[in-house]
Amino acid sequence: MTVSVLHKKDHTQFLKTINWLLLAIMFMMIAAFFTWSENITITRVIKVIGRMGMLGASWLVYVKILNYGAVDSLKIKNPLAIGLYLAYLGLGLASFLWTSDLGVSALQWFMTSQTLIFCFFFIKSLYLLDEYFPGHKIRLYNILGNSIFAIIIIFLVGMWTNPDEFIRYTHGGTEARLGGFIMNPNELGMLAGVGVAGFLFDVKRNHQKWFTIFKIVVLLYALFLTGSRSSLIGAVFIILFYIMLTNNTRLKLAIIGLMLLALPPLVHTVILKDGDADRVEEVLSMTGRLPFWQGLINEGLPREPWLGFGFMRIDYNDYFQSRNSYPGMMTHNTFIQVLMNLGFVGLVIVTFQMIFTFIGISREEPEKKLMLLSIMIPIMINSFTEFGIFGESNFGILFYQLIILYIAFKRNPIITPAQKLHLKITRPDLKLT
Fold it and tell me: For FRET with 146, which of 93, 140, 177, 302 sits at 20 to 30 Å CA-CA?
């Protein structure tokens, strides 16, 4: 079955409504990962209502598109990527039998699974729009960019109006970082990087070009204020990736020139922290992560090498305490996190899952492939130093699940007689062949 427009019908208002709904849903879903109150009960209520509410909202949008005249005849085209991710979750579920803390493992597993279901309906909605509304302008990268931009604006306004909540002071109060207690500055920096990745593709398609460039500048400014080294590196790689994509020589030279001017002071300020000897040593040890990782692998892993300590558990206790490093509840590396909580079996599963995800991305049409690779840059760099795509519940997992499902579906050319009748009634402007 192929779909084409038989005679003109104006779907502009419907598509505008869907676009705003998807944007609002993504904004609320990302916001539900933040800690908006110091009261743990209020925070949990916001997270539960927010996340479950947005799951329901994504389903309602999907149903709204079906009711308007689309037919869900999609089928799986990349079974290994999604299948291995489900195997990873399956092993996590099985680990309830041996986890060192059932409550923690169960909570993390259900949150990760809930996010996957949300992404399932969200991505299906985008696919149905592609299939039944040819030429529409709703794009995942635009939705991500604008929802992230709105969140970052909240933090920038909060920085000026309520710095105690939105600024985190570290190193004895000598360093102020955007994020506060509401969000880890490194995670907020990664979020800004994903927003930049999305907006660069809006620039590429000439969508509100100068306003979009302004948004990119705001996101980069916020990223700088987070003081996140990994996010800065991610932003540089995203921009270099974009330079490779554009054929505009003058634009390439302008971006390269600006980067050459900006990078030395940024490296000195953000990465080397003004050249302080202690900060340089801190960089060399990756803020103490290297001795912590060494302790995890040398001391922790031999205790439970094959199946780990249970989903999102890295020791028998809440904290892993190495002889030569700080105590920690998480590994600050998503791959070591998998190794500790699901052992070598889990690491093999996620390794092959990622391989098939990248294979799936490489087989997509050019715009989609480049967009997904661009979004992968900041979340992968973040995965080496923070929660990451296989860590404790965070919006990096949300973005990775969106990518997995975005490469999972394809159009099924066969629809049932009942579905054909539905289309003839609801969408007489479509020609089915």
Answer: 177
